[in-house]
TrEMBL record:
The keyword Transferase applies. CDD domains: PNPsynthase. Pathway: Cofactor biosynthesis; pyridoxine 5'-phosphate biosynthesis; pyridoxine 5'-phosphate from D-erythrose 4-phosphate: step 5/5. Keywords: Cytoplasm, Pyridoxine biosynthesis, Transferase. It comes from the Bacteria. It is found in: Cytoplasm. It catalyses: 3-amino-2-oxopropyl phosphate + 1-deoxy-D-xylulose 5-phosphate = pyridoxine 5'-phosphate + phosphate + 2 H2O + H(+). The lineage of its organism: Bacteria, Pseudomonadati, Pseudomonadota, Gammaproteobacteria, Pseudomonadales. PANTHER family: PYRIDOXINE 5'-PHOSPHATE SYNTHASE (PTHR30456:SF0). Its EC number is 2.6.99.2. It is an enzyme of class 2 (transferase). The gene is pdxJ. This is Pyridoxine 5'-phosphate synthase. It comes from Metapseudomonas lalkuanensis. One of its GO terms (cellular component) is cytosol. 3-amino-2-oxopropyl phosphate binds at residues 12, 23, 197, 218-219.
Amino acid sequence: MTEANRVLLGVNIDHVATLRQARGTRYPDPVKAALDAEEAGADGITVHLREDRRHIQERDVRLLKEVLQTRMNFEMGVTEEMMVFAEEIRPEHLCLVPETRQELTTEGGLDVAGQEARIRAAVERLAKLGSEVSLFIDADPRQIEASHRVGAPAIELHTGRYADAHTPEEAARELQRIQEGVALGLKLGLIVNAGHGLHYHNVEPVAAIPGINELNIGHALVAHALFVGFKQAVVEMKQLIVSAAAKG
Ligand SMILES: CC(=O)[C@@H](O)[C@H](O)COP(=O)(O)O
Ligand SMILES: NCC(=O)COP(=O)(O)O
């Protein structure tokens, strides 16, 4: 396999913390899940410290920063509170995401085109930490071009609409949007990642997109881990990604 078709797996451990927060217990510990994921072949660990702290807590992020063998991808809203916390943690990767207090999950991409000055200022400030800054956006040419203009080196394309498609035709259309988004991002010199809602039955066509760098996957992995264990869940996802990428 060449470097060109190697697709990385970022394991999102947020929903291990969701289970813990549901009862206010000390278990299950997302830090243990992260270490197990690394042993099973994860290329990085993703966490989203939400404003409402519904899953990941500051304690998790601080501990992860100390113990991870791979790297942290820290997802955050564009708020002063999060900027200050990111400056303390200095994660290797930072991903700016939109956040709405009441949403069930991250429902759309960041509107970079509609607030270029604000996002440019955030990207410049965070880049000083030495972190690779990424923008979580829809596969929309306007947003991809704006991400390039504000100086972000990387983007993560939101795959939620593809994952939530109700018919094969709709899924094919959404996949095509992602494929075109990846191609445009690469043409502009961006690192292109993708994620959200990917699972064992829909990940392969995305992993096969030429040039895609990393897939961030969480909810489906945590769900599958209930039945097969966390390490095995990561191993199975990684196998799917690696083999799809090799064919892509
Ligand atoms: C930004 C994003 O997509 C992730 O952080 C992920 O989906 C985590 O789960 P929640 O959106 O449920 O917090
Ligand atoms: N940025 C997307 C992510 O980290 C994982 O999303 P999901 O697999 O939990 O939907």
